[in-house]
Predict the structure.
Amino acid sequence: MKNICTRTVTAVIALLGAASPAQADWGLNMPVGVTDMSAEIYDLHMLIFWVCVAIGVVVFGAMIYCIVAFRKSKGAVASGPSHSTTAEILWTVIPVAILVAMAVPAAQTLVRLEDSRDTELTVKITGYQWKWEYEYLDTDVSFFSNLSASSNEARLLGSEIDPATVENYLLDVDRPLVVPTDTKIRYLLTSNDVLHAWWVPDLAIKKDAIPGFVNEGWFQINEPGVYRGQCAELCGKDHGFMPVVVEALSPEDYAAWIDAEQVAAEARAAGTANRMASRQ
Amino acid sequence: MNTPQADRWLPGKLVVLALAMFGFGFLLVPLYQVFCDITGIGQRTGVPTADVVVEQPSDRTVTVEFVATLNQYAPWEFRPAVQSMEVQLGKLYDTTYFAQNLTEQTLIGRAVPSVAPGTASKYFKKTECFCFTEQEFAGDEGRDMGLVFSVDPALPSHIDRLTLSYTFFADRTEVAQANSST
Amino acid sequence: MSEAATHNAHDDHHDHGPAKGLLRWVFTTNHKDIGTLYLIFSLIMLFVGGAMALVIRAELFEPGLQFVNPDFFNQMTTMHALIMIFGMIMPAFVGFANWMVPMMIGAPDMALPRLNNWSFWILPFAGTLLLSTLFMEGGAPASGWTLYPPLSLQTGNALPYAIFAIHLLGFSSIMGAINIIVTIMNMRAPTMSLLKMPLFVWTWLITAYLLIAVMPVLAGGVTMLLTDAFFGTSFFQAAGGGDPVLFQHIFWFFGHPEVYIIILPAFGIVSQIIPTFSRKPLFGHDSMVYATASIAFLSFIVWAHHMFTVGMPLAGQLFFMLSTMLIAVPTGVKVFNWTATMWKGSLSFETPMLFALAFLFLFTIGGFSGLMLAIVPADFQYHDSYFVVAHFHYVLVPGALFGAIGGAYYWLPKWTGYMYDETLGKWHFWLTTFFVNLTFFPQHFVGLAGMPRRIPDYAVQFADFNAISSVGAFGFGFSQLLFVYIIIKCVRGGQKATAQVWDGADGLEWTVPSPAPYHTFEEAPIVK
C-alpha cells in the first residue's frame, strides 16, 4: 500500500520496456525447461503460437483493410457481395487443413509422453492441505515438504515484511524433492484430502492429485539444478502457499544422498521401536 | 395471433425435455461407471472379478508396486508388506497389507483400491482382497490383510510397471468420536 | 413494413399503456418492461461482481497479503464468477431477448407472459440469497465457481444456500429459455420463415435449446453434491465408491455449452450491428446459422478439455483435443463472414460499431488462445495458470460483455426514443477497450511464466505484470460509471431518434416508432 505510486510508475515503465524483445527474466513466455519432453512441448507451444500469429496477420489485416478502405466518410458505397459459396468453402477447408497439420505433432508428443516404460525410480507424491509428501519407493525414505519458514512469515496479512527481500518468496520449501538427473523417474500422485495438482513448469508436468485414486507420469531431467513450481488446483485457503521444489542432482550425488537418508530413516525407525519397547 | 404452424404443446414438450435432462444428469453416474469399466479411466478395481480363469502363465513379467495412503490423517498405521514384486503374467500371487488401529476404540475402515496406469486396471485381477469389505478393528488391533491377484497376460505391451494403491478411509463419525473421547 | 402501416395498426387498438406506480414493475407481463428489468438487474450485478473483481485485483496489485485473508480471497474469486455468469451476463442477454425478439419477429409479446414475470422475479431473490452467503458462518463458497468436491464439501454453512441459489438461477434460465423458444416457434409473423429470421433471433433460439439441455444437468450435479454433503451419499467420495472426477465430467458437460450460452447471443448482436454500420446485408446469413448450430452441437462433445490433467487415457485425450480444435472451424466461419460483411461496404463508426469491431478483434485473440489450450501437451503447461484466466476473460469480457454493451448502444434509441451522447459513447469505448487490454493481456505472460490462477499472493517475478493488470482493472471498472451516466442521460432526453435510428438499419424493430410503443405488432406485419 505504501508504495502504490512507485509500483504503478515502475509497472508503466516496465510495460514500455516489455516491448523490447530481450526480457528473459521478465518471464514473458513458457520456459523451455530441462527435460526432452518440456523442450518438445515448448516447441509445440511456439509452433501453434506462430500459426496463430500468421492467421492473425491475415485476418486482422483483412479487418483493418476494410476499416480503412471502405469508410462512408471517404465516400465508400456498399457494393460488395452478401454471399459467395467459393469463399465460404475456402474458409472452411483451409482451417481444417491447418488444424490437422497442428494435431499431428501434438498427437505424436502425446504418445511419447504416455510411454512410461523403463523407469528406474518411483517417487510417490501425496498432496495435503497444504503441503506435499514425497515417498521413495523401495526405500524407507519419506518426508513432508512445507513452505519455507521465511516465506511463511512474510506472507501473513500485515507481516510488514517486503516479499522482495525474501529469497524465492513463495517458491521455496524446507525439504525439496531430490532426484537424480539422466534417470527416467516415475511419479505416482494421490491426495490425502482434496484435489491438488503438482506443477513444475521446467519439467512441463501438471497432474492432478485425487483422493482415493493414483495418477502416474514420468520425467527425465537433463540438467542438475533446482526447479520450482506450485500447486495448480484450488485446494482451500492456503492453495497459494504449497510450492513444489525439485532438486536434481547428478546420479552419483543422488546415490550418496539417498544412502544417507536411508541410514537416517532406519535410525529413526529403530529409535521409535526402542521407545515403543521401553514403554511396554 | 398465432402463426398457422403454432404448436400448442411446445411449452409442455420443452418442460419434458428439461426434466429429461435433469434425469440425464443422474444417468451420467452409471454411464460413467460403464465408461470407466471399458477404458479404466476411473481406475476403479474395487469390484471383485467374478471368475478369474487362471490362464497359462506367460513368460512376460512386469513389476507391481504396492503403495498405501491414509485419508484425512486417519488414526491408523497402514503399509504394504512389500513395496514391489516381479510378477509373471497370468500367475496367482498373494501379498498382504498391514493395518493397525492407533486409537483405543473399535474403528471401521475401508481400503479403496486404484491402479496406475489407469488403462492397466482392467487387467489387474483380484480374487481375494480386503478391499471388498469394510474392516473392523478393535482398539489398538493390528493385523495383516490378505490380497490374492494376478495380472492378465493380455496386458498391453507398453506397460512394464503397475502400481496398486490403497487409500485407507476411516469412518468419519467414529473417528470424530474417538478423537473427542481421547 | 412501412411506418404508416404500423401507425394504422396502432389506431385500430386501444393502446393501454403501462400501469402507474412501482407495482407496474412487480406485476408486469409486458415483454418490454421485463426486458428493462432484466437489463437493469444485470447492470447492477455488473457492479457487484465488478467490485469483487476489484477486491481481487487490489490484493494482487503487489506481492504479499495487504487487504484480505486467503479464505476471503477465494470467496471473492468464487462469487465474482457466479455473479458475473449467472447474475450479470446471462440475465443481460435474456433482457435483450425479451425486448428485441418479439419486435424482430413481429410478435406482440412473449408467448408466456406470466411465466416471463416469474422468470425475472426469481432472479433478485436468488441473487440476494447467493450474496447473503458472504455473511454466513464460514463465509461464502470458496471452492471456485466450479465447486469441485471434495473441496466444496468443506464449505461452511453456505453450501446448501449457494446450491439452492444455483437451482433458482437455473430455474429462471430454463423458464426464460422455454419462453423464448415458444415465442420464436409459435409467434413469428406468418410471412417470416425460419431462415428469414434475423441472426440475433437465431442465436437465441439455439442458445435457448442449449440452456434447456444443460442447466438441468448442472442442477443434477449440484444436487448430488448436496446429498453427498448432507445425506450420506457417495457420488463423489472415493470412500463410498464414488469419484471426485465424476463431478468434473458432469460439471463440464454443463460448463462447456454454458460458454456458448454466454457467447452465442453476443454473436447474434454483433451480426446485427456490423451489417447496419456497413450498410450491407450480413454476409452468408445461412452459413452463419449453420455455423451457430455446429458450434452448439460440438459444444456437447468437448467438455473434457477442461480436465486434461486428471489423468485420462490417451484415446480420450486425443478425442477431446480433436473435437475442441474442430470448434475453431465454425467459429472461424463466423469471423470471416463478419469481415466479409464489411468488405466493400460503406462503414461508419458509431459507438455500437466500435464495440462490435473491438469484439471482432479481441474475441479472435481469445479464440487463438483457446486453440492453443486445445493442444493437450501444451495444455499441461497452460492449465489452471493465468494464461487460462486471460483466455476466458478475453472471450467473456471483450467478447460477451462487449456484445452486450454494443447492443445496448445500438438499441438504446429504440428503447428511449433519444439518441445517446455519441461523444461520451466514444469516450466510453476507448477507455473500456484500452483498460480491458491493459487488464487481461499481461495475464497471458504471467500465466506462461508459471503463475497459477486462484492464488491471493505470488512470487515476486510476477509483480510487474500483476501491477499493470490491477491498474487496468480499476480503470476498466471506473470507466463503466461513464456507461451508467450515458444511459441515464439518454433516458432523460436528448436528440430525438427516428424510427429507423441508423440509416443502415434493416429489420422489423426499426419499422416501429422510437421509443417503441408499449404494445407493438398487435397485428402481424408482412415480411418482405
Notes: The longest strand of chain B covers residues 61-70. The helical segments of chain B are 10-39, 172-181.
